[in-house]
Amino acid sequence: MSQQPMRPHQRLSGLALRPDRQHPNNTPQPSCREQLVCGDRSAKRMIGFALVQACTLGSILLGLAAILFAANGGLTEARGCLLGCIALDGLDGSLARKFGVSTPFGAQMDSLADMASFGIATPLVTYYWLADRGPAWLVAGACIAMALAAAVRLARFNVTPYNSTWFQGLPTTIAALILIGSSLAVPRLGFVPAMILILACTAAMVSSLPYPKLNQMLRIRTWLLSLVGIGAIISMPTVFVAVIGTFLLSGPLLALRYRLAPDDADALPE
After folding, report:
1. By CB count within 10 A, which of 60, 107, 123, 136 is most buried?
2. What is the mean pLDDT of residues 10-15?
3. So what's the pLDDT on residue 7?
4. Where, by residue number, does the polypeptide cross the bilayer (predicted)?
5. Mean of the per-residue pLDDT values for the chain?
6. DSSP state of 165
7. Domain for residue 100, yes or no?
8. For the chain, what is the domain count?
9. What does the alpha-carbon distance between residue 228 and residue 260 come to, in Å, rounded to a whole number?
């Protein structure tokens, strides 16, 4: 007699009863992905976990506030909220590492917060910034493309192996910083340059170009950092444009460098 094929729910039941997935009392043991906090649940770690999630949720709330401010003409307040989102995005990761509470749940929450703040709120604030400077339909199209690019960038980040040296594509946080910073540093930025900047950030987010992480940027020589600081005192808009232009171009330049010298490309994202 031939054996009847197992139905999907029977196969899942069989997996749940495997000895290596059970506690000694035969209760199925949840994996780390099924828990909010993995490992030790001491008071210190639980407080750290709560602080991390508070930062993440705070970023979402600030993103929503930015949308409301921008819709009611408060562009300055909206930009301030988005800068707060950027700060909280960096803080939650630092706290997670400090308290040892980096978890799959936290990673998913962080991506959702990034999508809310940098994939939705930032394009909308950018739209309200530029809609009265040129064709509204053109601005809307560029901002929609930016939102879609952010979604693709974040989804790809979630399934890409970790690389401690490079980002694969421009991070959504940095794209938001470039756009919000540009609107603050160069308030009278022309419509065409602003649109070019939006499209450049959009293309860079969905690209596979390597962009340096903070630990790589800190290797910049002290004299060069001093030069940037002096330039910022003299003319902040000029220095800001030069810095973001250099950073955006660093991706294509690094890719070209390692294409010409493939033996040095081991650390680059694939």
Report:
1. 123
2. 40
3. 46
4. 46-70, 136-154, 166-185, 191-211, 223-249
5. 79
6. S
7. yes
8. 1
9. 30
